[in-house]
Amino acid sequence: MKAKYLKEFFTFPDILIMSILFLISLSFTISEWYVLETWLALVAGMIGYAASEYLIHRFLFHLKPPRNPFFLHLLKRLHYDHHADPNNLHLLFLPVWYSMPLIAGTGGICYLLTSDVIMTNAFVTGVIGFLLFYEWTHYIAHRPVQPISPWGRWMKKLHLWHHFKNEHYWYGVTSPVFDVMLGTYKNEQDVEKSSTVRDLERRWDKDVEL
Fold this sequence. Notes:
By secondary structure, this protein is mostly helical. It contains 8 helices and no strands. It has a domain at about 5-150. The protein has helices at about 5-10, 15-30, 35-60, 70-85, 95-115, 115-140, 150-165, 175-180. The longest helix has 26 residues, at about 115-140. The termini are far apart.
């Protein structure tokens, strides 16, 4: 792994901000390492983000284009434009204006359910930690970098199929578990090339061949 890619990743503003928040949250979580509930909440946060990674990607980021210009603009920034220009670094990462409200919202729900600040912080630590893992995996998939592990190389291949073969499959970025469970994992050779894989806005046009 070349140092320039590590620098490029961790100095990108959105990643830098989330990394700082993660370290702050982690410092409080570590101080309560001896409490079982801390670890349970941490794992719950990681699992929760892993599930949202797939569900948001499939059901929100691939929505039919909204008629409202403002919401269409948001969706284009969050995902449509990324499919149009997959290797554009400025379209690669989730913006903090999207991530922060989601983290705050899920953290608030956790506190309402537990009334426990320590568990809530551990949950948020798990969420942000998995978010950074997702961002790194996604970053590596789109940069001229060969992942070190066989798992990483496989996930990079699946993600590039999603971008360059067919946008209806392989939504998972860090794992294919939910693709397998929900029927969106296919053998690449059994899937036809999509005419809208680089233009999600045209998926619902009547003149597009399915």
